[in-house]
User: Which sequence fits this backbone?
């Protein structure tokens, strides 16, 4: 079973609950659109490409329940990642052909993700080896592996391709406050792959780059504007600044569909702001006002290349 999948026993969307990792491997069976929307908002399923797959299956669920209008609530459950709404809307193009056709389209979205990921990660691994011949010390943020993208991953997938090629020295995984996608999920995936890694706090990332401990930074993307400005997990921008200052390659690895022609520049990207308790809870605070953007925007000038299944956009 994939981490995000369909169950005919229901109908239902079945997914590995990413909130419970790494402590528990717990599967959710979501039988209503409300349950799926809640799972998306609370990050039981997350990562832009996986949201696309969940969105497509969410459309199938809405149609199977004879509530096709509810699909739009799935599409808008989170605002920043492009693939979520694309997955819903692509599956819904088959609405007139009935629920089975919508499900078939959703299954096609999921199947294509694996092909896209394989192409993008091979291309990105090739580029890392071109820019840094020899073995690479990679730094990454958030989680961009199979959990976030479906089979093959994106940025973390490219790092694991380097590992497969014997070209990886180690991965520095930034923990990714406040929800610790790096510490909980990336480390889980690196452990499973047997790839050498160390965990660092997010603010150690720029210091590691400046200290010469990093040969390449690889991150994913939630939305790439038409000019190349890229929204990704909060903390990406400081890594890009540090990489540019130190002359370290900074690669964004993502499906081509993440490039949004309808978003001219980073200033036009809607950045999701999340609840205060995600930040307050860590310090045991109850009432302090909080600024908690889920993403930041990295200007294209700081990005060495955006690598997709179709192109290396330098
Ligand atoms: C290939 S996944 C790319 C991005 O979706 C990822 O880096 C990220 O920022 C995920 O944020 P999240 O809030 O965990 O959904």
Assistant:
């Amino acid at each position: 079973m994939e981490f995000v999948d369909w169950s005919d026993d229901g109908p239902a969307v079945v997914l590995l609950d990413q909130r419970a990792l790494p402590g528990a491997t717990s599967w959710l069976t979501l039988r209503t659109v409300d349950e799926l929307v809640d799972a998306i908002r609370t990050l039981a399923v997350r990562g832009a490409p996986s949201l696309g797959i969940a969105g497509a299956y969410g459309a199938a669920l809405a149609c199977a329940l004879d509530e096709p209008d509810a699909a739009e609530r799935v599409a808008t459950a989170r605002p920043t990642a492009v693939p979520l709404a694309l997955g819903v809307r692509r599956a819904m193009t088959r609405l007139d052909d009935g629920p089975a056709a919508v499900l078939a389209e959703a299954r096609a979205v999921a199947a294509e993700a694996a092909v896209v990921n394989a192409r993008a990660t091979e291309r990105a691994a090739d580029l890392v080896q071109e820019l840094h011949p020899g073995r690479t010390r990679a730094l990454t943020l958030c989680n961009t592996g199979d959990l976030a993208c479906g089979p093959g991953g994106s940025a973390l997938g490219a790092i694991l391709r380097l590992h497969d090629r014997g070209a990886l020295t180690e991965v520095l995984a930034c923990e990714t406050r406040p929800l610790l996608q790096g510490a909980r999920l990336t480390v889980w995936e690196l452990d499973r792959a047997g790839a050498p890694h160390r965990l660092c706090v997010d603010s150690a990332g720029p210091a590691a780059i400046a200290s010469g401990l990093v040969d390449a930074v690889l991150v994913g993307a939630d939305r790439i504007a038409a000019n190349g400005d890229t929204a990704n997990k909060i903390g990406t921008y400081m890594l890009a600044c540090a990489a540019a200052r130190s002359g370290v390659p900074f690669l964004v690895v993502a499906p081509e569909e993440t490039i949004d022609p309808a978003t001219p520049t980073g200033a036009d990207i809607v950045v999701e702001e999340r609840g205060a308790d995600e930040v307050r809870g860590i310090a045991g605070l109850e009432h302090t006002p909080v600024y908690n953007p889920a993403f930041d925007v990295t200007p294209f000038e700081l990005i060495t290349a955006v690598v997709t299944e179709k192109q290396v956009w330098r």
Q: What stands out?
A: The chain has two domains: 4-112, 118-313.
